[in-house]
Specification:
285 residues, mainly alpha, MetI-like fold, 79% helix, globular
Length: 285
């Protein structure tokens, strides 16, 4: 007589292989079975895209018609003014200021974002504090760097200080969010073990939370540093100092060969920052 366990073993289905799971996928047959819900969602997305295209007046014909003007603009930029690379007042010093704005803005944003992220982490903060800090972060993230730059230029005047403050205000909300998400995704068992032996909150953060979240935090910091290098050109264009202000002046004065020099510098700065960031992240992995 078969025991219940034997019957269960005999009636148990064999595990489904990977190839069988692939063949059973709706897209495997070449005719996706999306159903009426998928069809409805697709139609809604297409309607929204069409509505957006109509609102922005995107016109391939106008783009083709404007191609000679774009070609003329590119032709006027060449050859670049190679001697202009050595201009201390308009190239060397603004380039240094641009890097200083990006580095200082990122560093100050990290200093402010770290304590905010602790308060904005669901697994560390009180629910009321969590909701309040998240609301503040959402407000800060909603305002782009360009608007912050206009605000701070009006408040403190033209120059790199206004640009730095704009990058800090534009970065701290987003950095706090990604830092908090890194903290929330940690393995809770080390923290629970520390709680069991009576560890204080500071000890739990220092020895249970940070060792797990630090690598992600550093990666996000490097990512925002790259972003802030590009953003520093934008805030500079409205009076935040650095290369952005020089580029705006050159375009207004039709100094296209000098503009190309600054464009080359921008590409070099962003590329070098990307390589440095990638190297550091590879060492942390």
């Amino acid at each position: 007589m078969a025991t219940p366990s034997t019957n269960t073993a005999n009636t148990a289905k064999p595990p489904i292989s990977f190839s069988e799971r692939i063949s059973a996928h709706p897209f495997a047959s070449g005719t996706p079975r999306v159903g009426w819900k998928g069809t409805l969602v697709t139609l809604i997305v297409l309607v929204v895209i069409g509505w957006s295209i109509a609102g922005t007046k995107v016109s391939p014909a106008e783009f083709i018609t404007s191609a000679p003007n774009m070609a003329d603009f590119i032709r006027r930029m060449f050859p670049p003014d190679w001697k202009f690379f050595l201009n201390r007042e308009r190239v060397i010093e603004p380039t240094i200021v641009t890097m200083q704005i990006a580095i200082t803005g990122t560093a100050l944003a990290v200093l402010l974002a770290f304590p905010l992220s602790l308060l904005a982490s669901r697994n560390l903060s009180h629910p009321a504090i969590y909701q309040a800090i998240r609301a503040v972060m959402n407000v800060m993230r909603a305002i782009p760097e360009l608007i912050w730059a206009l605000i701070f230029v009006s408040a403190v005047g033209l120059g790199p200080f206004a640009g730095t403050l704009a990058l800090v205000a534009g970065s701290v909300g987003s950095l706090s969010k990604v830092f908090a998400e890194s903290i929330e995704s940690i393995n809770p068992k080390p923290v629970e073990a520390m709680e069991a032996v009576g560890a204080a909150q500071v000890q739990k953060i220092a020895f249970g939370v940070l060792p797990q979240a630090l690598v992600n935090m550093v990666s996000y910091t490097l990512l925002f540093w790259e972003h802030n290098i590009r953003a520093s050109f934008i805030v500079g264009a409205v009076g935040g100092g650095g290369l952005g202000f020089e580029i705006t002046s050159e375009l207004n004065l039709f100094q296209y060969p000098q503009f190309l020099v600054h464009a080359i510098i921008i590409v070099v700065l962003v590329t070098v920052a990307d390589r440095i960031s990638a190297w550091i992240r590879s060492r942390l992995a």
